[in-house]
């Protein structure tokens, strides 16, 4: 199988390394900058628990244009980089190409299909703590790993080569036709946490301690929005999310918080603006998110 990782950072690079380690040699890593240079020179090194290993992709590049069509493209970019990333693969997508986006937001399939209607575009979400610690080196933290993937009407039997690849290479994955529910369940946690940690400039563990009311309001607003869109998030999902928020590791920050601290483009539109716009479109009131979204926009425009 010919595989591309579009965005071989902390998440994508780890996935690519797992595929390579599972004796799937035709893996291309699309990266940039010093990270790409190091991969080209010395390979990609993974630090996982007490283990350290290095893999060497078939190709490491910032421009896959001349590499032909791919069977599977995993999109592991930030939302802010998605349009540019999709432009880069214009010569790599054919009717047999499966595209699996694993971004922080929701509903990427329509956006990608608009660009590549000939492709088989799925939806996905991933739970993982993994980041670049230095160019060419990725650390995966702890045991957290779960990849959910599929689409409405999805039958895993139609994707047997991918199922078998994921079975061999990944700690845990779930092919499902209920992917919208899985995506929104993750979004129910990461959206409020990203917004509140970025607004208050504190790590995640302090949000449940110091801003519990706003955390509950945001989760309830997002659950109401999901329900209006036909996604069956329940009161139990809200309570489970709040319990999860109370158990996060001390000192951990969200990626959006870190991006704002580092003056990098942040996923404000995907994780906050989307909720406000969809709430307005569907008549779902999201006053807490609207207030905090405006504050974030103001802060990042200064």
CATH architect. name of the largest domain: 3-Layer(aba) Sandwich
- Spans of at least 5 consecutive residues whose pLDDT stays below 50 are none
Number of strands: 11
Q: Can you tell me the overall shape?
A: globular
Secondary-structure-derived class: alpha/beta
Strand order of the largest sheet: 5-2-1-6-7-8
The count of helical stretches stands at: 12
The CATH class label of the largest domain is Alpha Beta
The CATH topology of the largest domain is given as Rossmann fold
**Which percent bin holds the helix content?**
40-55%
Largest sheet: 6 strands, parallel
Number of domains: 2
| H and E order | EHEHEEEEHEHEEEHEHHHHHHH
Radius of gyration from CA coordinates: 19 Å
Q: Assess the beta-strand content as a share of residues.
A: 15-25%
Pathway: Cofactor biosynthesis; (R)-pantothenate biosynthesis; (R)-pantoate from 3-methyl-2-oxobutanoate: step 2/2
Function: Catalyzes the NADPH-dependent reduction of ketopantoate into pantoic acid.
Pfam families: ApbA, ApbA_C
Protein name: 2-dehydropantoate 2-reductase
List the main descriptive attributes of the protein structure presented here.
single chain; 302 residues; alpha/beta; Rossmann fold; N-(1-d-carboxylethyl)-l-norvaline Dehydrogenase, domain 2; 6-stranded parallel beta sheet; 5-stranded mixed beta sheet; 12 helices; globular
